[in-house]
Amino acid sequence: MSADGDDVPGFSRQATADAGDVLAAVRARAARRAAQTAASPAALREGTQGGAAAGREATGRGRAKPRAFDFSALPVMKELQFTAAAGQVMGVDSPFFRVCEGRGAATARIEGADRINFSSYDYLGLNQTGAVLEAAKAAIDRYGVSCSGSRVVGGERPFHAALERALAAIYDAEDAVAMVSGHATNVTTIGSLMGKEDLVLCDELAHNSALEGARLSGATRRSFPHNDLDWVERLLETERSRFGRVLIVVEGLYSMDGDTPDLARLIDIKNAHDCWLMVDEAHALGVLGPTGRGLAEAQGVDPRSVEIWMGTLSKTLASTGGYIAGSSALIQVLKARAPGFVFSVGLSAPLSAAALAALEVMAREPERVARLRDNGLALRAALRARGLDTGLSEGHAVTPVVLGDSPTAAAVAHLALLKGLSAPPILHPAVPERRARLRFFVSSEHTAAHIERAADIVAEAVAEAPEITARLGLS
User: What confidence score (pLDDT) does residue 39 get?
Assistant: First the structure.
């Protein structure tokens, strides 16, 4: 979706257009490598590229074309092949699906070696905390590892209500509902609340799950320029009367850039134009505010002024799942009509117990939140001191190092890993091509030494990366 209303599933027109010459050059060179492989006698004999031999075998009548249901013929496979070939040209392994051989702590054993770890969003270190781990183990002993049914019919357990009360209390809300997936929580909530007569307004940097929920709903969808509330106000002044319900979706802390929206102004806008406001707190809970209660606490706003608070259990709360907090009527509607809740198994005992215990630790140990805040500011300062571009980061738990294009970001991440740092690259189409980056997730458990060494490694890797990207003919 884009600000002018054109829909491109998962990302905006600008994100697509910005790929430009860099991706064209990468693809051209990678395509030549892929074509050489495809043209080899062995490949032709084996039909690995969906060539004539495979086509004849599929049809039995000599037609030399891949079957319509052959997944290898999908356009996305060509993109994956191009990416793999580009990595081969540069001598860079895929930066994705790297194996962490233990807990994702401040340091972790990744791909067989110990690294400083900025790739895990265990913001308050609660995935390493005894009280959280023991709560999960005790829940398994009592309830087992699965609810073995939808909560609507047989899967309801006492710990569900306990967790939901604790989540609602964070926002001084009447009620909450916990679901088995953060992504599914956004998709099913937006998808079930909105319809074809409605409008969903998403910040252009909102998570994919919000975009998918808007698409599923059948509502008119618009994305607005990042944090541009003047744009939102102008649109509503001219277009609000065309729609039934209107939902504005923002994030409490943006997961790619580490900045925040102006919550008080958003509330004024939605009140003036009779809209619902939904705030995704996936990366804000445990991070923003003196006690980690999120954006409202950080900005001194009454959380009851927001209709829909959404969050995940997988970051600060060291578990898995998502939640919605709001009015009792909202929660009743979702428990009755949201497909991702009604037709899904209930959140399991160990995951529920871990999240509840994590909330309790967060409440009684606010010093964890303070350490995280100090570490976030320290990392941003260290990176900037070395001339690195930290983009829009406000120095919270998420800080990017913007590098300019996907090959450079992949090369820097590769070199950094070799030097002992795990910080994942974020590439097009997850971000616009010219904004490819490394993304750092900061923890309260990182030390000053971790932060300074990480900044040194990135600076070294950035200096060395042109030697790698030159193999693609880009420098």
Answer: 45
CA distance 383 to 129: 29
Give residue 431's pLDDT band: very low, low, confident or very high (50, 70, 90). confident
Q: Give the whole-angstrom CA distance, residue 155 versus residue 179.
A: 12
Q: How long, in residues, is the chain?
A: 475
- Residues 6 or more apart in contact with residue 41 via CB below 8 angstroms: none
Report the b/e string of 179-202 with b at 16+ CB within 10 A: bbbbbbbbbbbbbbbbeeebbbbb
Q: What residues does 222 pair with on adjacent strands?
A: 201
Strands ordered across the beta sheet of 437-441: 398-402, 437-441, 425-426
The total of other beta-carbon atoms located within 10 Å of residue 209's CB is 24
Predicted model pTM? 0.84
Residue keyed to tokens 């183990």: 137
Amino acid letter for position 404: G
State the pairing for strand pair 308-312/322-326. antiparallel
Token duo for residue 267: 């509330």
pLDDT at site 96: 81
Residue 222 main-chain phi, psi, to 5 deg: -140, 135
Residue where the block lists tokens 């001084």: 172
Lowest mean pLDDT among 49-53, 64-68, 157-161: 49-53
User: Looking at this protein, which amino acid is placed at residue 61?
Assistant: R
The first and second tokens of residue 293, run together, are 């209660």
DSSP strand pairing (246-251 vs 199-203): parallel
Query: CA–CA distance from 257 to each of 204, 398, 426 (Å)?
Result: 12, 7, 11
Please name the residues in contact with 413: beta carbons below 8 A apart, sequence gap of 6 or more: 95, 423, 424, 425, 438, 461
> Could you give all domains of the chain from N- to C-terminal order, each with its CATH number?
13-90 (no CATH), 107-120+366-472 (3.90.1150.10), 130-364 (3.40.640.10)
User: H-helix or E-strand containing 399?
Assistant: strand 398-402
Mean pLDDT of 91-110: 85
Question: Which one, of 466, 354, 426, lies nearest residue 15 by Cα?
Answer: 426
Q: Looking at the DSSP assignment, which residues form a beta bridge with residue 425? A: 438
How far is the CA of 78 from the CAs of 27, 30, 71, 81, 190, in angstroms? 10, 10, 11, 5, 32
